[in-house]
Amino acid sequence: MNKFTGYKKSILTSIGFLFFILAGRAQEPAYARQLFGQKSLVQAKESVDSFLLQNSTSAEAWLLKAQIYAAITNDIFLKDLLADGRMDAFQALQKAMQLNTLYTEKELSSDNYKVAFDLYNGYSDEGVAYFNAGAERNDKGSYALALTRFKKAAGIKEFIAAHIWVESPDVRNLLYSAKAAIAAGNEDEAMYFAKKMADRNISGYPYGDGEPVYKWLLYHLRLKKDDEGMNKYYGTMQLLYPSSDYYMLNLIDYYRDQNDIVAMIVQYYKLFSTNAHYNKPVNRLALIKDLYHYLYTNPEKNPAYIDAKDHNWGIVTVKRLKDTLYSELVRFNATDDTSAEGKLLLGKFFINQAVDNKKAGKKSAAINCLKQSNVYLKEVADHPHVTDKRNYKEALALLLSNYKILGMEKEIKKYTAIQKSGGR
Questions:
Q1: Long-range contacts made by residues 378-387, C-beta under 8 angstroms, separation at least 24?
Q2: CA distance from start to end of the chain
Q3: Per-residue pLDDT reduced to its tens digit, 41-69
Q4: How many angstroms separate the CA atoms of 354 and 401, rounded?
Q5: What is the DSSP letter of 271?
Q6: Entry pTM
Q7: How far apart are CA 96 and CA 20, in angstroms?
Q8: Of 105, 329, 378, 418, whose CB neighbour count within 10 A is largest?
Q9: Are 8 and 42 in contact (CB under 8 A)?
Q10: CB atoms within 10 A of CB 68
């Protein structure tokens, strides 16, 4: 019995001694490194974590933890052991650099910062995967997840860039971050990344098309009535996309919202002179309609004159604006003589001129203006089958009104009957 007891004590002593040795080895980073080298990643993780509990100031151990956690994250069978292994690894890298910069930089440089780039590429690839899933399913949630990955990747890239030269700015990351934020409906983040792209004149090449980002930016700056932002980024957009008319048209919309008629006209003429393709009837007609709306919708709200020296236009009077409208109307109708809307607007212009002349006591001039108006209104009213229904009805009603003022009974009878029959 005594012999058995002695034997038992010997076994327990041996087990205790073995445990002591293993525990001691677990307190050495070299042991964790050995396990890591053997690809025993779970045991390596436990070993380095155990060591750091007692030795939290060891840069070597923190760097080793970063490498082990990064490897676990890249292992398809083990990655679910960690909620966000890449971030754990990155934070370990930061801790190592904080504790001993010279050692950590030397170790990372030995393999060209491989562990840091692996973390960066891992987040970037995940972000692209979520982004593509969002595009396939039209899913804002996927775009939001993509954005979080791109932001984490950007943080790691900044860490790398602080120690070695890398491509700057990170075009792919900024482009995808901006697009993901826009698609996710995250306006604040989208504005941040879009402005960041614009501040660096980034077009997105060769990773994708950045123009949708700039269109979104300009549109939302206009909605916010952000004069400073509009002025700051408009030039960048034109520089990057000189063949696009979107930016000039958006600026025209902006000046229209501001009721800045001269700036709007100047922008229209800049549009027309930039590219022959933009000097097309639809854009010329838009200018005409804007001028007409400004002059005749709420004329009492318009100033008698505008100081437009900043636009090299000097002092702009209402008369000058009306002269501009008239010359544009004549030009447009000469260029596109099939446009019912152009003829209708010219007919309405002469009616308004008749009103002005009547107010000024120029009765004969007022009558002449009505007669000129009838020439254009009649062209619309006499061609109901090639005219937009709304334009046709308006032209017919105005034509009848003019004939009544002029006392032209024969014409009144004719067009009244047409009006009652529907004319079509």
A1: 379/340, 379/343, 380/340, 380/343, 380/344, 380/347, 381/415, 381/418, 381/423, 383/340, 384/423, 384/424, 385/424, 386/338, 386/340, 387/340
A2: 123
A3: 999 999 999 999 999 999 999 999 999 99
A4: 13
A5: H
A6: 0.74
A7: 28
A8: 329
A9: no
A10: 28
Q: What is the model's pLDDT at position 27?
A: 55
Residue-level pLDDT at 13: 40
Render the burial of 365-384: b for 16+ CB within 10 Å, e for the rest: ebeebbebbbebbbbbbeeb
Instruction: Residue 283: count other Cβ atoms within 10 Å of its Cβ.
Output: 18
- Rounded CA-CA distance 194/199 in Å is 9
Token representation of residue 161: 């860039």
CB atoms within 10 A of CB 152: 21
- 35: three-class secondary structure by DSSP: helix
Residue 167's pLDDT is what?
A: 75
Omega within 30 of 0 (cis) for the link into 212: no
Q: Which residues, 6+ apart, have CB-to-CB distance to 167 below 8 Å?
A: none
Count how many residues are written for the chain: 424
pLDDT value at position 231? 82
Residues of the chain predicted below pLDDT 70:
1-28, 310-312, 386, 423-424
DSSP 210: -
Residue 315, SS3?
Answer: strand
Buried b (16+ CB within 10 A) or exposed e, 266-281: bbbeebbeeeeebeee
